[in-house]
Specification:
The strands form 3 sheets. A 5-stranded mixed sheet has the order 2-1-3-11-4, with helices on both faces. A 5-stranded mixed sheet has the order 8-6-9-5-10, sandwiched between helices. It is an alpha/beta fold. α3 crosses α9 and α6 crosses α11. The chain is built from 11 helices and 12 strands. The longest helix is centred in the first third of the chain and has 27 residues.
Amino acid sequence: MKINIFIQSRFLLFQLVALIGIFGFGCDSQPKTSESPDRLTIGVISYGEGKISLDKYDRFKDYIASQTKSIVDLEPAYNELQAIDQIRNKKWELVFAPPGLAAIAIGKELYIPLFSMEGVSNRQRSLLIVRDDKPINKISDLSNKTVALGEIGSAAGYYVPLYDLYGLTLAQIRFAPTPKTVLEWIDNATVDAGAISEQDFEVHRRSFSTTKFRTLHTSRWIPSGVMLLSPTVDRNLQQQIQKAMNDAPADIAADAGYIPAAKIPNYQEFIKLVEKVQPIEPKVKQTPAILIPETSNPTK
């Protein structure tokens, strides 16, 4: 009798172990979930133009998502200060960067330039403009005068003119929300001079037919903007992105504003220019604006 009970107990135990094995095997045999797709955020400077200015990136975003099997988001910044913050915090994996932003991203944050956003012939320069009837003939004549600059962080409106004004004491620096505003302020004598890109000057000067402007100073050439990749992106994914962008249909690349065949500009000299200017940035909103670092020789 005891033997039978023992045999029955062993048999029940064997069945229980077998059932556990079957259920365990069943769970393990379920198909494993694939790894989560990569998530990429494309950063662009919108300058407050809202959805209209972002539409041209939609097909590019969808194209990159399909080619890399990633989730791709498009995130605008409405000025370069917001953009710089996103880059410093590595929030953007891909960036369509104008020159001022590109210099900071490449020089300090180690972003990788992948493609030029313009051809060499489309490089620009910064101009310092005055009214022709003003007795201002050289940059040093702007000492103790009021000067208009453009958006903080832009190349032609901010970094380059600050570099050219380095060492001066200005009565005040005013920041214009648009290039046209710079010319309006010069026209109505709100400021004595203003900084504007060569291209914007040619476009907006036509609105002031009764005023004769004069170019006081023309800067060095500014490199074209570049399409950048964050150093946090995995190398394999980087290669996928680069190949996809290089092979993209011409209309998608054109809408996004990059040129696969164009030579990537050398940013080394422009990075040095921005680094030269940064120590005097705390002074630009002071009155007067003394454009000399606290413990620095003002010579260039």
